[in-house]
Specification:
The radius of gyration is 46 Å and the shape is elongated. It is an alpha+beta fold and 146 residues long. Strand 2 and strand 3 form a beta hairpin. A 3-stranded antiparallel sheet has the order 1-3-2, with helices on one face. The chain has a domain of 78 residues.
Length: 146
């Protein structure tokens, strides 16, 4: 399968003076021939001439349609090696362009709300009595009448 690249140029707007060119048509042919030869030296093949419309501004707010004469050229381009191999289907929405990041380490989880034996304060004196950790008194009951 051949691949081409294209180039489109405006056709010459006036002819060139030449020794053999006496009429305006002859002069225009000389200008067109020199443009075709210049592109051929650069490897471009002439394809066709087109007249295409272009909407352009005229005045402050007006628009008008102008027609342009264009010359179309093409040249063969070597197909890249990857294009000759069957292409893999591409995802409809490509992945983000940023590189993948390494996963962040898991943060330390908080301890349970209940106090742990290792959480108790250490007594200032090594011989602290066991009663230092006193338990609250039992709730009182109302006196009974006999």
């Amino acid at each position: 399968m051949s691949h081409f690249e294209y180039s489109v140029l405006p056709a010459p707007s006036r002819g060139e003076k030449a020794k053999d060119a006496k009429t305006p048509g002859d002069r225009y042919a000389v200008a067109l021939t020199s443009e075709l030869n210049r592109m051929a030296r650069e490897g471009w093949e002439y394809v066709r001439a087109d007249v295409l419309p272009s909407e352009e501004r005229s005045g402050l707010t007006g628009r008008s349609t102008v027609y342009h004469n264009l010359l179309v050229f093409r040249r063969a381009v070597a197909a890249p090696a990857a294009a000759t191999v069957a292409r893999q289907p591409q995802p409809e929405y490509p992945a983000a362009a940023s590189p993948a990041r390494a996963p962040e380490p898991m943060p330390d989880l908080p301890q349970a709300a209940a106090p742990q034996p290792s959480d108790r304060p250490v007594a200032a004196t090594p011989a602290a009595p066991a009663e230092a950790e006193a338990t609250p008194p039992a709730p009182r009951s109302a006196p009974t009448q006999a």
